Amino acid sequence: MTARDECELTLTRGELRTAFAEVLDDRRTIDEKTHRSHHEYVSDRIEDHRRRRAFRDKIWAQVGGWIVIVVLSGLGIAVWAWMKAMIKKGGG
């Protein structure tokens, strides 16, 4: 006869359910160090997201500024060309 045969347990459905619930509850909880590291990770991700958003906003501001400069320069060139054409017509 083995030790397994000698140590036979009989659990009711409720006892088995309670035992499983206790084991699952124990596995659901995490130690304080792990919990803290999870919070640090989330905080790092939030900060990373803020940095990326600030970088993206800065780029869009620069690109927007250059677009304004290009448009105004284009208008200036067009007006200059129009004025030259008008002067040629009138003076020619």
Description:
The protein has 92 residues and is mainly alpha-helical. It has one domain. Helix content is 87%, strand content 0%. It has three helices and no strands. It has helices at 3-6, 13-28, 32-91. The chain is rod-shaped, with a radius of gyration of 38 Å. The termini are far apart.
> How does the overall form come out from the CA principal axes?
rod-shaped
Largest sheet: none
Radius of gyration: 38 Å
Helix-and-strand structural type: mainly alpha
**Total helical segments:** 3
- Note the beta-strand portion: under 5%
Low-pLDDT sequence parts: none
The count of β-strands is 0
Helix content: over 70%
Number of domains: 1
Terminal CA distance: 124 Å
Mean pLDDT: 87
Return the string of H and E elements. Answer: HHH
